[in-house]
Every structure is written in C-alpha cells, then in structure tokens.
Design a protein that fits this description.
Length: 232
Amino acid sequence: MNKKIEGTINKIKRSRSIAIGFISIFTVLVITTGCASDTALPESRNLFTLYDNYNMTVVVVFDEEPPEIVFIAPDGNPVDMNTIRYRPGSNFTQYFLPNSMPGTWRMVYDPLSNTEISTPYSVYMEHIFIRNFEAHPAEIEHSVLPVSFEVSSDESGEFRYEIHTVFIAPDNSVEAEVLLIDGYGTLNENLNVNISGDISKQDGFMLRLTAYVQHGQAAIADTAWLDLRLGG
C-alpha cells in the first residue's frame, strides 16, 4: 500500500514539474513577444554625434519607397515617429529633430525594396521675427527713453538683444554707431526697456535693434530699425 501511494506521489511530482516548466516557457515567450517594438527593425546605422543641443534635420533618401525607420536618441530611447515633424518628397523624406540631445544618434530601419538609402543631415534653425519695435518719446522722464518690442518664434526660450544708436550723415551713410543697451528677453513676450539719453530730440540718430537666439555654437538673428531723426 505504501508503494502504491509513493508511486502516485511521484507521478504527481513529475506532472507538476512538467506543468511548471511549461508555464515558465510560456512566460518567457510572452515576455519576449512583449518586448518586440519598432526598435527591432533589421538594420541600424549611426547618424551623427553632437556635443551640444542642436535642432537637427535628417533627410532619408531612397530609390524605391520610403523605408520603415525609427530614430534612437543617445540615451537609448526611440523617437515617437507618429509625432515627429517631417516633409515628404518624391525620393526622400526630411525629418526634424528639435533640440536634439548631445551624444550619438542612430537610425534603425527596414529597407523594404530599396537597394540604396542615404541619410544626409544638417543643423536647422527656426526663424525669429522682431515685431512692434516702438519708442515712446511722450513718456520720456529724466532723459530715459522707453522702448518696447517683441521677438516672436515657433520655439520657446530666451533671446539676447542689442540696441545701438546709429549716426546717419546727410548723404545717408553711417558715420558712427554706439551700443546703448543689451540684455535678455523671453521669446513671444513683449519687452519694455529704458534707454538712457533723450535721443529723440537729437538730430542724426536712428535706433537699430538686433535680436539673437543661440543654438549651440550657431545663432540666428533679426534686425529692426527706428528712425528718430528730426523730420525722420
């Protein structure tokens, strides 16, 4: 009787071991399948290495059809290709990667029917525009001239500005220029600054405003003028 019981127990243990092994294999398969994503595309290449944050554009050139691609950031995270801005062409697609982090960027892709794929890249910059550059001579007090302006952009962040007085000769040539004030402002917000000196009552002056937005080692700029000469 004991032998029969022992034999039954052994059979139960073997059946349990097989069931546990099956469950383990099934779990591994589920976990492995769950890890599959766009980053498992069959081919990969390095695109560029950055040492600072830049706005980058990548042009994927192909000979047959747009390949399936995913960009991989230096931290290993894939870019959401459903939200990235792009511009399609007949044999290329241009992708925009704003404020790309430093490090080596990669692209994983499936070439599909293409025999050749190239990926030229470059830095791009969003334009900025100076708007509503105005002086307010009626508000002059203690020889301080109030000036206001806005620097607009599709981006957010700060900009640097400089305001110069420019001396204009009777033949409209530039005789001299002097930096009056410089500083920083916030994009897409109106900025009010005070310029020392009642220049609105001095003949021969113009104001030149230059605004800059820095992108790594490069910068974009815009310039606006105010003619404050007598009779200007």
